[in-house]
Every structure is written in structure tokens, then in C-alpha cells.
## 1
Amino acid sequence: MIDRLRETLRLWFAPQHLRAEGSTPDYRFSLANERTFLAWIRTALALVAGGIAVDQFLTGLRWSVRTSISVAVLACAALCAFRAVNHWMRCERAMRRGEDLPVSRFPVLLATATGVAAILVLVAVALGAAS
Amino acid sequence: MSGGSTPHTRDPAAQPERTRFAWRRTTLTFAVAVALGVREALYGSGGASATEAAAAALGVLAWLAFLALAHRRITAMAPERPTAMGAGVVQAAALCTLAMAMVGVVLLW
């Protein structure tokens, strides 16, 4: 755990070490990794847009509820952006070393969080409409 | 086409083109987020305050930076065998996204 954290921090703050490892992979694999990174950035941006939209369009809810939902969604967006960089670096390093691509439980976490958030907003809107 | 001194290797998956489109798509998504942010600053709760105007302006700047970044990367992908993007590009792209998330938080108040 500590080793992995140290390794991650080293990648973050001294990314030039990345080029020193292994050999340069086929450019097509690197481009595929780049597109995956961009897809995660788009997910983060969609969450940013969603967070701002909640504040603008769920005006039937109380200010505190609306703002909590927005802040949670925006925090998720920031997490996604961080994770996009981390995953890109880990994949790039694995490809340079010729190892298996890293597995991650982040997609599952994000999917669960999205599902829970959808149910919460549904309940909030239904209760808001009832009162 | 046969002949020619250098064997032209066809890339059947059109990888550089797809990657260029991915950058364009991402820039467009960023524009949607910025547009929502500007709308929030103008018509959001409490009207347009100086803080909200500054936050929206920062969002627009982050988008412009991302646009420039995407353009540079797309130009760098012009050769037949483009090099992988550097860690600096990755960090700059993520930084622009994080800035936009911060702008969103500021705009809520």
C-alpha cells in the first residue's frame, strides 16, 4: 500500500522517469491509451456540467439539498480527472514494461455512485413535488 | 497501389484520426460545461456578482487553454507515426478539468 502510494507520487511529480522504463510501445497502443484518458476527462467534464445543471434546473428543491447534490457531483468530477491521469500513467508504464494492463475498481465505484445518486435525486424530486 | 521505395503501412484502425476526433469531442464537452457555467453566473441565484463573473471568466480561460492544448496535440499527430503524448499534456488537460470543477463549486454560491 505504502509502496504503491510512493510509486504513484513518483510518477506524478517526476513523469520523466516514465520514458526511462522499458521500450516505446507501438504508437497505436499509446493512441488508444490517449483516447481512454480523453474519455475519462469527458466523463469528468460531463459531471461538472451535471453539477452546475443541478443547481440551475432543480430549483424546486431546498437550497441546502440542491447545493449538497451539486458539490457531491463536482467532487466526483475532480476525482475522475485525477484518476484519469493516474490510470493513463499506470497503463503507459505497463505497456513500456510489457506487463499486463492494470485492473481497477474505479469504474465499479463510479457506476455505483451514479446509481445511488440517481435514486437519491429521484426521491428528493418526488418528495419535493409532494410537499 | 504497388511500388514506391518505402513500403507504406496502412493503419486499418485509423488511430490518429480517431484520436483527433476524441480531442475535438472533449473540447466540445468542455464548451458545454463552460456555457452552463456562464449561464449560472448570469441567471443563477443572487444575480451576477463580481466573484461569479470572475469564476465564469476563469472557466472560459480554462476552456481556451484546453482548446490550445488540443490544437497543439492534433498538430503533433500529423506525422504518419505520431509519438505518444507527453505527461505534461496529460497533466495540463487534467488541470484544466480540475479548474472547471473548482469554477463550478464557486458558482454555486
Note: The longest helix of chain B spans residues 15-43.
## 2
Amino acid sequence: MQQGYDAIGRLSQMASGATTYVSGLSFNAAGQPQGFSYGNGVAATFGYNQRLQLESLRYVNGSQHLLVADLSLDKQALPAQLTRRHLGAPTPVAHPSLPRFCVKSLSGMPIIEMNGLSKTYTAGFWRKKEKFALQPLSLSVEEGEVFGFLGPNGAGKTTTLKLLMGLIFPTAGSATILGRDCGDPAVKAQIGFLPEQPYFYDHLTAGELLDYYGQLSGMAAADRARRAAEILERVGLASARDLALRKFSKGMLQRVGIAQAILHDPKVVFLDEPMSGLDPIGRREVRDLMQLLNDEGKTIFFSTHILSDAEALCDRVAILHQGELRGVGSVADLTSRSRGQVEVIWQGASAVEAVRALGGDCRATGETVRALLPEDKLDAALDALRRSGARLTAVNPVRSTLEDYFVERVSASPQEVAS
Amino acid sequence: MSARLASIAFNTFREAVRERVLYNLIFFALLITAASVLVGQISIGIERIVLVNLGLSAISLFGIVIAIFIGIGLVWKEMEKRTLYTLLARPVRRWEFIVGKFLGLVGTLVVNAALMAVGFFAALYYLVHAFDRSDLHLLAALYFIILQFIVVTALALLFSSFSSPLLSAVMAFALFFIGSFAEDLRAFAQMSEGAARWLTVAAAHLVPNFASLNVIAQVAHQQPVSADLMLANTLYALFYAGAALCGAVLIFERRNLK
């Protein structure tokens, strides 16, 4: 085992509610990360199926932060998903089936900035009634981030995206993308946009549509043909290149939508509900594609009301409700918050009563018992288990999910939000 | 012309062709064939006059109907179907979209009219078995018809930039109808008095003067079209269409897409 890389970062989902710093990743002879040590000096080793791909790991040199999220300590479980932040050139994961150890570079440079961006619609015969579609919104998204814009339907997500795309005009405030006003055509050459439930000229074929959009983005003819073929292949539509768009299914249209959004190799990609209307496989594919785009260094700003997608993809999320920003935070932080409960799993049914007496909620399946109990009762429970001769299998802190945070923010009163 | 303008114009043309707009040519072919056969039998001596009147009027009317029905949907349809979202998220300026759409539809109408004109001249040849110099005047009438298309398309686009297709169609047809009697309206204005006179004079000069763009009867009687009229009509049509397009752009530049 060689202690080669000096990866310093935060490792979430480590101990109960704590955010811990990884102080050393260890690697085997093949160069694969094999384990790490963290804050209190305890070393851990990855289980046999927890080997990570070194191809996606980059040496971190003077990085301001390296974030490793969702790494499970449980030997049996795979490290579900690791978000990447690093300073080297990003590399796609060679074997997508294996867990990713992703390290991502964040220059700290804001790519999208909204300053008090708001939109009010007037209604009624005299246009005197005012309706806030978006309360003054200030947000900034950094280069290389996957930023999730969450909210229930009608929260103002699409309004924000339309404002950023210059499709509607703000009542007040401003927004910049890549340091320029968002309406600037020079900006638009460097961004891609997928609207919600996209619809395209149905008299065209997929190939013709991409060619047309390539022309509008100022691409040269040779580039257009090459990129169109490449992108259609990438979104799985290579065989549908010459098929009229009117014959496309909803899922196929969504793919064409993504294809047109990334055709001109934009730096920032805006996606409005990219997974809506897709079946589970389609959703997974879109998610993988988004991850891949991010691996290539693109900043991704997407809206969704599907929280599991956001949790799987995003570095940070913002929660919008009734046109108002209710919270912003890093997914790793939000999902590492303890809920004050631990899950204890053991073999041996005899200890059930003792744990129940401590306020544990026990469920037994044969000899295996799973109990949820308050954190402060953990020691007492472990004592009880030891006394009864039960064999402890696992102790896991119960963490907040993004959903918990979402529900909390959405149901919070405006005063709470302000505080 | 910028590459983007050309792309948008070409896509508009391609859409019209693929939406089978040119199918109207079949009706025109049937009409002109039937007319040339029937006219020869029933109107001795005035076959040419009847055929020219009928043929050129049909070319004009078919084109005007297409200009209005497609023109009113040019902007509205793209907003309604939200195809504009992905378009305007590219480095396309809003004026380029409007002008590109305009050029595309005018191009479609010119191609359509040219094909009809070929059919018309073939029918004429079938009927009179020869062309003479005065038939060149027919080209002047055709040119004026194209100018009409330009004005109508610009107006349809203007209406389309702020109102629903139905209302746009009503307004465009009404203006075309009133404009076709613009000369009468001007004469009427001269006869009225007081405030009414100012109003009618203003109205008579504001509506597009389609009457002066219609020389079909004149060329049917083999009368020449003066160069002065050609120049005046060209300037008038371009100015009028330009003003309508500017209006469409000004409205569309400020419009929030739904």
C-alpha cells in the first residue's frame, strides 16, 4: 500500500452528523484507491467491490477544497456516488458500472450570476393586478458546478430559465452569464438550452434540425456535419438521423432537445426539467449524459422537481417556492445532516425487548433485526446487545435526505426563510 | 445578408414547401387549363382579355391568400409551439428572426407565382398561338403582384407579432380589401368636408394602396405600364412593407414569450 496522494477534503457521511476531512487516500500497486484515513486517525479500507477507478481521480495540488460525498463506510455497500472537484483535467469514468470517485475543479469563478432578478406579470382589464412570478432572486453558480434548481410545479423555475435565456424580460434586476449580460448574442454562442417538453420543427429530420441550429450558432458546414453525427450517436439517435421529427416519441424528442443544446459545445448548459416524461431507463441515460458533460468541464444548471435526480447529480441546489428562493446549499452538506437517529442491525432476536425498552423501533426478519433509535441511546443499546450475546452487524447514522430539506424549506414560513 | 438570416429564410421556405403549400399549384393548373379550353369556346375575339384577367387575378389571389394564412402564423406558431425557445437561445437577434421569416415567405410566394406564371403563359400560348411585344406588359403586372405579396406578408407579420391568428387574418384581409379600393377611398375623401375630410384623407393614405399595384385590366387590354409607375410602385411597396416590418420588429423585440 502506498500513501501517495495527498488528497485533502471533506468526506461526508462519515461519522454521525460530522463532516470529516480525508487526510490520506491510499492506493494499491495497481494505482487504485484502496482506503483512506480520516479526521480522528482511523483508517478505513474499501471493500472488495468498493474499488474506485483511478482514471477519474486526479491529484490535487493546492486545491481550495476537494469534496467527496456519499461515500459509505459500510463494507457491503458501494460508495454510491462521489462528486468530483479537482484541479486537473477531468476524465470520464472508464467503467460507468463501477462507482465513481470523482474529483472536480471549481475555480470559484461565478459563471451565472443573478442580481435581484424578478418578474411580475400584470393582470386584469386595467392591468392593475400584479402577480409575482419571481421574487427578486440573487444567486450565483460557479464554473464546473452542477446546479439544481428545485421547486414544485409553478415555483418559478421555468420563469427564471426564460429570463436567463432572454425569452422574457425581467421587471427588475439583472443576470450575467460568463461575465456578460445574459441577452448578449456573444453569450448565447456559448450556452445551450433545453426547454421543458421541447418541441421542434416537425417538418425537419433530426439531422436537418441540428444542421439548422448549427448554422444559427455560427458553426462551419464541415463542423456541423461532424458534430451532428457525433451528438446523435451520443444521445442514442444515430439511426433516427433521417427520420422526420413528427414521428419522434416524447423520449426521442427529449434526446433531440439535449442534442441541440450541446451541439455547439457550449460552456454552460441550461436544462429545464430534462428528465420529465422519460421512463426510468431514459432518465438514467440522461443523468449519465449530464454527468459526462460535467466531467468534460461544462457547467450545468438544471431545474427539476424530481429530488432523487438532483441528489444524484448536483453539487449545489437552490429551492424555489412560489417564486421565492427558500434555500441554497451543497447537496453533500444537506444530506449529511444527522436526524438524531441511528440504525442498528444485529443477529439474534433475544435483544429486541431490551432495545424496544430504550425507545427503539425494531423490525425482525428471521434472526436479523433492524432497529431505529435515538442517537443518545446508542451506547445503552450496544450494551444491551452485548449482554444478550447478539452479533452486531452494522450501526449507521440516519441522515437527512434532500427531500427532508426540500419539504422543510418549502413549508417554512417567510419569516423562517428570512432568518 | 447574414448567414443566420439566410438560414431562417431557407427554413421558412422549406417548411412551406413541406407543409404542401405549393399544392395550390394543382388547383391553379386545373383552373387555367379549364379556362383556356372554355374561354376559347365561349368568348370569340376577347379570349385573350378574359384569360389574362382570370390568370393574373388567380395568381394574385392565390398568393395573397397564402401570404395571409402563412404570414399570420409565422410568429404565432413558433411562439405557440415554443420552437422559438431553442432558436432565441442561440445567437439570433429577434429582428433577424422577423426579417428571416419575412424573406422566407416572400421567397416562397415568388417561387409559387413564378410556377403559376409559367402555366399562365403556356395557357396563353395555347389560346393565341403567338406572343407579341405587348405581352411584356404582363411581366410588369406580375411584378406588381409580387410587390403586393411583399406588402401583404409584411402586414400579416406585423399583426402576427401582437395578435391571434384569427384576428390577424381578419385585419389582413380587411386591409387588403380596403386597400384594393384605395383610389375610390381617396376620391371619396376629396368629396367630404370638415373634420370628416381629414379623417378620410388620413385613412385613405394610411391603407396600403393595392389599387395602384393592380394593373391587370390595363395589361389585359395590351396597354403599357409606364416606367414612372413602376418606380413609384416599387418605392411605395418597399417603404410600406419596410414600415410594417419595423413595426413588427419593434413589437417583437419587447415581447415576453409565453
Note: Chain A touches chain B at residues 162, 165-169, 185-186, 188-189, 191-195, 198-201, 203-204, 212-213, 215-218, 257, 260-261, 270 (CB under 8 Å).
